[in-house]
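User: Structure please.
Assistant: Input sequence and predicted structure:
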Amino acid sequence: MNRVICLMLLALSLNSCATKDEIVYFYEGKESLNGQRNLLEYEPKIEKNDVLRINVSSSSINEEIVEPFQMRGQGQQTGGGVNQNPSLNGYLVRPDGIINFPILGEIKVEGLTRTQIQKKLEKEIETYVKDPIVDVRIMNFKVTVLGEVGSPGRVEILDGRIAMPELLAMSGDITYDGRRENITIIREEDGIKKIGYIDMTDTDFFKSPFFYLKQNDIVYVEPSYRKVKSAGFFSSYQGIISIGTTIISLYLLINSL
């Protein structure tokens, strides 16, 4: 009977442990990562209802020549600080993919990257200003993170591009109870919801179209089997083993009296 108790306690301790491939990132295929082409050229494309902040300047000392191309009230403070509604301080992309830009009028931006929009506007403004410099930012670039991470919530992206490892770092990393091999990404493209999956334990995820995230993506980290089972005591095999161990211990204690 004592051997049975020892075996049950050993099984309980082993079942509570996590394996290496459940915890370690990039565990599979490390060799294939060497020499892989980087993806630094990636840029998200502008979509309907995006809000763009467009600043126009010039290499000329006189900045007044570019004032007609600036949005009125852009960056102005109201009340206690800058207006928190980005659409009031930026250019809202209409459902037809167009923005209304000062002097130039309607400009089609949907489907273009920030770099493409900058070059397009600079070419148009060159008619009026010598050597214009255009800077474009996506003001509403946010990604929602749910599930087994340190700090779930909405993450605001300032530089216009973010990769999955960076997002997880900003969200407090995946907890020990999160599934690294099956992260779900919900994305909307052309009005259609699209679902993808990433395995953070395998370096093949660097080739995934979901390696870089888009504005308004939803990332969900599932709980591990161990975490799901621990939610219900009697549905957990650790809980059943614990009950069995307690019953045997009480039985031995009573018989020894």
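Residues 2-18+228-256 form one domain.
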